[in-house]
Amino acid sequence: MREKTLSMGQAPSLQGIICEPSPGTSSPNTAMILLNSGVIHRVGSCRLSVSLARAVCQAANIITVRFDFSGIGESDARRSALTADEVAVAEVIEVMNYLAQHKKIERFILYGLCSGAYASYRTALKDPRVIAIAQIDGYCYSSWKTYWHHFAPRLFSTARWTSLIKRLLGLKKSVSGAAVSGIEAKFFEVPNFGNFPPQAQVTDGLSQLVKRQVRFFNLFCRSEHYNYANQFKDCFSAVKFGSLLELLYLPNASHILAEPEDRALVIDRLVRWVKSIV
User: Fold this and answer.
1) Per the domain annotation, does 248 fall within a domain?
2) 189 in a domain, yes or no?
3) How many CA atoms lie within 13 A of 37 on its CB side?
């Protein structure tokens, strides 16, 4: 495997890293592109994008590219009248066009966590060269089971009732995740269900991708919004995924996959998924 820096797209160019298999071993027409999550640059949370890009390149023998959107990491900011969502799609397509021109790539697998997952989905709708998308904590919505899994354990938990009473009496203070981590809350990127597109719109988009036979890898970590294994299938029950979907739920993993064993598991599953495609 060889790694080198790339400058791609229109000026100012987008900066990235390309991993290429050893000469004579690469798949001639498929590449995987790894997208930013929020304002985290191309290494990804806990260097997940670096480890994943290298593992996929070595095991699946395909080119992988991790790059910075404009204004993030080493890619300079650009002036544009487009929305942030539109800019992300346009820049992913720029990278795809670069790889098509310079590396003769015809098919693309997109990977992203949180906002990167959303951009992967939107780009797939826009460009038919995308044959598969891997999403960590992508779009999903609540079902009636979500509320059951959320409230039922709390109703019958003595410890929770005790904690609530202590807080109401001022005997116990609530501590936020930001206070525990020591990181300012404004730097956290977590799934914001309130800002998601309408569920019917995403359902329609997923159905379009299924008609194109796009493959899906969807991983969800437990949160107050996603709290049981098949929630994704339940909220998109109208979409006939069949064998196109691989769904993974990690109830004990953090959103950024902070634990090494969680990252190792996800990388292993993603590598196997990519190999099944190429």
Assistant:
1) yes
2) no
3) 24
CATH number of the CATH domain containing 235: 3.40.50.1820
Q: How many domains does the chain have?
A: 1
Instruction: Show the domain range for 204.
Output: 2-150+200-277
10 Å Cβ neighbour count for 240? 12
What's phi and psi for 131, nearest 5 deg?
-105, -10
172 belongs to a structural domain: no
- Output the six-digit token pair for 105: 């790539």
Q: Report if residue 99 sits inside a domain.
A: yes
Please determine, for residue 151, whether its predicted confidence score (pLDDT) is greater than 90.
no
Integer-rounded Cα Rg, in Å, for the chain is: 20
pLDDT tens digits, one per residue of 90-125: 999 999 999 999 999 999 999 999 999 999 999 999
Q: Between 26 and 105, where is the model more confident?
A: 105
Q: pLDDT tens for residues 188-206? A: 545 555 579 999 999 999 9
Confidence of residue 175 (pLDDT cuts 50, 70, 90): low
The residue count for the chain: 278
